[in-house]
Amino acid sequence: MVFPVTFWLLLAAALVISAIGFKNYVWFISLGYGFSIAGEGLLMLILFRQGLGWAAALCCLIFIAYGCRLGGYLAYREMKSSSYKKNMTGEIKDGNTVPFGVKLAIWVTCALLYVLEVLPVFYRLSNGAGANTWFYVGMVVMVLGIALESAADWQKNRAKKVNPRRFVDTGLYRLVRCPNYLGEMLFWTGVVISGIGGVHGAGQWVLSLLGYAGIIFVMFSGARRLELRQTKNYGADPEYQAYVKKVPILVPFIPLYSVAKYKWLVA
Prior knowledge:
single chain, mainly alpha, globular
């Protein structure tokens, strides 16, 4: 498959932005992730500005809003939340102990994933496909995903201010234990939906779905990490034990209550 120059420009942008991870290892998958998506949205807005309809422009703006919100929230948490820093100690490898070659591989892999994730919209623009019903439906789902993730983050912060030592089981956390990750998956599901009728051929769909599968894997991996950490912190609490037995970990109404045993969920 021949990739257009615009594809390589997206990859270059993701590489430049996610290179922030060389300063702090975890930023490859946190700040680098959010701001890379925002950067790709901005770049697509510029690259395809000729003849770009209002719907396509709005979709690019949604990417920018999504990435800036996520990157800004993660940056604030990294800089301001002492409890987060304490909880994450030992959870993620110390970048100082990771060989440069490994960092380089992770940098390139992450940047490539960030490009693959936006391909359904990229291909619609690159193929010159106009807006259709699926495009509008996908954008609505994307906005719902941002709203869900934002509300979950806000509810958790609010609950932790009231009782920082207790797990959160109110609001959206009554639906699933990781509603922010659910919002993330909903957003990218919307991106895939938006590509229907705009993505052409098996090759383009394979790459688009590869990006989708990658981010879903990352979300389940993150849910497993969170479950292990919460079990360590709250495992002796009878209320927590009752909570995890009745509230699904990630997908509502699906009786999947634990992913701790799936050790292959490592990202």
